[in-house]
Amino acid sequence: MNKIKVHIEKGSSSSYEIHIGYQIMDRMALILANQGWAHRYFLLTDSRVSALHGERVLAILRGMGLTVEEIVFPGGEEQKSIHTCTELAERMMERGADRTSALIALGGGVVGDLTAFLASIYMRGIPHIQVPTTILAQVDSSIGGKTGVDLPSAKNLLGTFTQPKAVFIDLAFLETLSPREFINGLAEIVKYGIIEDPEILEELREGEEALRRRDPAFLAGIIAKACRIKKAIVESDETDKGLRRILNFGHTVGHAIEAESGFAVSHGEAVAMGMCAAALLSERRQYLSPEDREKIFAAIGQAGLPVRIPSSLDPEGILRGLKRDKKKEGDQIRFILLKRPGQPFVNGGIPLSLVRETIEELRA
Ligand SMILES: NC(=O)c1ccc[n+]([C@@H]2O[C@H](COP(=O)([O-])OP(=O)(O)OC[C@H]3O[C@@H](n4cnc5c(N)ncnc54)[C@H](O)[C@@H]3O)[C@@H](O)[C@H]2O)c1
């Protein structure tokens, strides 16, 4: 089992470990039993993950003598709401959850964000543990302590910064992901390749076959690399004031596309399209060479992700979404752009008209 330590020592946050390996739930049970983070655990998960893995994880935890109850809710982004959050809090209250309880988030980014948000506000804060089961959650959302729920008008508008006690990344969970979900998560790994370590793009290209087989050894290597990048960025900027913003590469347009499609376009697909938009904007502004822009499009396409925005999506709807985004300042939008792969920077002012042209150009 590979261990990565996330060092955060400011305010009320503390450091924690990311454990990465294949079939590590028994190790997790042992660590929870030894740490004594809580008297009682609530395993929060969505119905699909519960059906696939809930019973087995519960049995392993209980086998180690831990008191654990499962709380299941329907999956999907539409569940990431304050309404679901209060419903879950009520269910915990009914079962007597108190300040000596802790939450375990077993699932993708939706379960992780929602559980972490609930943990941060339930009785003014109880501990939580992340057990991410999608690639996106393993390399991104479970690390770094950003929690949140959506409002009908915008994603992640209500949230807190609350670090987990630990993150357990078990590659065995990835075996049950649908092909679409698997590819979806690759968008975040490609993102790390584009913003930080272009070698990742090479590895993905060379490891195409291993990736297709979901080879645990290959996945362990590439996921650990991605986690190290995320942890380094979080360590230097826990609360998203500077460097951490580069993680939003592709997300500005991506979130607007996701919302405009009514979430028919998945998060990973939307981020892929958003990364293409950011690369094209970078080229249009002459920061990025046409060759590097092409390399980026090729890496995204080769991972099985889209490099075009569906023509069924209304560009004006996407632009309205961008205007609502937290990254807007007046008539200009703040973007993460690129000088070359591995060299992102925050650009304070891209006029909406240029964004409109770029979106039009990318429409299939
Ligand atoms: N907190 C952060 O820093 C951060 C960063 C990036 C994204 N996010 C958030 O993450 C969310 C997206 O996460 P996601 O892509 O993991 O989506 P998700 O949580 O909706 O999971 C996608 C689907 O996969 C299913 N699933 C999960 N694990 C599975 C498994 N092992 N086998 C089979 N099916 C499985 C789920 O039931 C769901 O239907 C968004 O809400 C986004 O805002 C948060």
How would you describe this protein?
This protein is α/β, with parallel strands linked by helices. It is 48% helix and 19% strand. The chain is built from 14 helices and twelve strands. It has helices at residues 25-35, 47-63, 82-94, 109-121, 135-141, 179-195, 199-206, 208-212, 216-236, 251-260, 267-284, 290-302, 315-324, 352-362; strands at 2-6, 16-21, 40-46, 68-73, 101-107, 128-132, 149-151, 154-158, 166-170, 328-329, 332-340, 343-351. Strands 1-2-9-6-5-3-4 form a seven-stranded mixed sheet, sandwiched between helices. Strands 10-11-12 form a three-stranded antiparallel sheet. Helix 6 (179-195) packs antiparallel against helix 7 (199-206) and helix 11 (267-284) packs antiparallel against helix 12. It is globular, with a radius of gyration of 20 Å. The mean pLDDT is 93. The structure holds nicotinamide-adenine-dinucleotide (NAD). Nicotinamide-adenine-dinucleotide (NAD) is lined by residues 46, 48-49, 52, 75-77, 80, 107-111, 113, 133-134, 136-137, 140-141, 144, 146, 155-156, 173, 176-177, 181, 184, 267.
Q: What is the strand tally? A: 12
What is the helical fraction, as a range of percent? Answer: 40-55%
Ends distance: 44 Å
**Principal-axes shape call:** globular
Going across the major beta sheet, what is the strand order? Answer: 1-2-9-6-5-3-4
Element-by-element helix/strand order: EEHEHEHEHEHEEEHHHHHHHHEEEH
Beta-strand percentage range: 15-25%
Total helical segments: 14
Ligand kinds: nicotinamide-adenine-dinucleotide
Arithmetic mean of pLDDT: 93
Characterize the largest beta sheet: strand count, sense, and whether it forms a barrel.
Answer: 7 strands, mixed
Rg over C-alpha atoms, rounded to the nearest angstrom: 20 Å
- The chain-level structural class is alpha/beta
List low-pLDDT spans: none
